Amino acid sequence: MRLGISLALILGTIALLVLMPGQGSIAGLERNTIAGITISIGCALLIGGSVLRGYRGRLPQAVQAIAVWLLIILALVAGYSYRFELQAIANRVLGSLVPGLAIGEAGGETVITRNGAGTFAISGRVNGKPARFIFDTGASTVVIRQEDAGSFGIATAGLSFDVPVSTANGRTTAAPVMLASLSVGPITLHDVRALVARTGTLGTNLLGHSFLSRLGSYTVEGDRLILRAR
């Protein structure tokens, strides 16, 4: 009986919402509100009826079972209501567990957590291929190691190493290239200027200003690097 009432209530409300024209309210209530209330009442009738049938003659156990179901429903509703806050907490935990992982957050921000060495070692993609970078505001361009260039689809045989650069090992020359795409988390830029450093001159690829200057902004807040797309 309660199953029939629940289904009739839900189906009748769906029919009303479908048949009523426009996107306005019904009896002063928004359509989403009506649907939510109807489904809640229908589920309550369905669960309550099932529990009472299963615990017939055992009222205390029936009340206890209904209370458990109510707690479960409340927990689900609370989880849905605070889903964005819970996602932000989960992102913080994930970022701490995996430093360098670029995590997209609400508001269009991409966050990277500093690693144990005190640097921002960033997981990204060059021309769709996985790449690792060090965040380096002192580098005027993105710098790619010659050892990694081939895996990114860069033809190293025809490179012209004619751009003077300074490295920790002294002065050397690098080859200018254009990266079809460079991605950090959900942020992707196309046609990014870069240099290919000669073999043995760099330990890690550098994420420099030819990428950073094209962002909306980037800031360092404690152990978090925050990138914002334009």
Question: What's the assembly state of these chains?
Answer: single chain
Element-level helix/strand string: HHHHEEEEEHEEEEHEE
Query: Gyration radius, to the nearest Å?
Result: 29 Å
Q: Biggest β-sheet, characterized?
A: 7 strands, mixed
Number of strands: 11
The global form is elongated
Chart the SSEs and their pairings:
Layout: H1 2-19, H2 31-54, H3 59-81, H4 83-97, E1 103-105, E2 109-113, E3 121-126, E4 129-135, E5 142-145, H5 146-149, E6 163-167, E7 170-184, E8 187-197, E9 205-207, H6 209-212, E10 217-221, E11 224-228
Parallel strand pairs: 4-9, 5-8
Antiparallel strand pairs: 1-2, 2-11, 3-4, 3-7, 6-7, 7-8, 10-11
Give a brief description.
With 230 residues, this protein is α+β, with helices and mostly antiparallel strands. Helix content is 38%, strand content 30%.
Could you describe the 3D structure shown?
The protein is α+β, with helices and mostly antiparallel strands. It is 38% helix and 30% strand. The chain contains six helices and eleven strands. The strands form two sheets. Strands 3, 4, 5, 6, 7, 8 and 9 form a seven-stranded mixed sheet that branches. Strands 1-2-11-10 form a four-stranded antiparallel sheet, covered by helices on one side. A hairpin with a 3-residue loop joins strand 1 and strand 2. Helix 1 (2-19) packs antiparallel against helix 2 (31-54). The protein is elongated. The termini are far apart. The mean pLDDT is 77.
